[in-house]
Fold this protein.
Amino acid sequence: MTLAASERDIVFYDGDCGLCHGLVRFAVKRDDDGALAFAPLKGSTFAACVPEARRSTLPDSFVVLTCDGELLLRSAGAVRVLKRLPPPWPLAGSLLRLFPTSLRDVAYRAVARVRNELFARPTGACPVVPAHLRERFLP
């Protein structure tokens, strides 16, 4: 069963980051219900969904806009993505929530600082998205 677009969270990601691309591939592979849509942070969907004043204050790696209109940053966004995937991933999200957000975000920021050195940037060409997934990738 695929969820309606209004029931999806939108995962905004850094289109130039190998780690972010890997996380998107991870989520797409497991998200059988279509609970998540994906769009680059530098894309028109992000510009349309998040006001300019707010965009300038957000991290440049990973932001989740929930279907309820809430913006989740850093580890809170990662936890939300895990909780929207099928089992066992919601359990992993629940386990992460046992740690205080401040501690989770310290780890998140540490990885974010070195992500470009640790993970290869995606090649110049975008991967071909299968037809059944195209509606979940927004500009």
Notes: The CA atoms of residues 5 and 37 lie 8 Å apart.
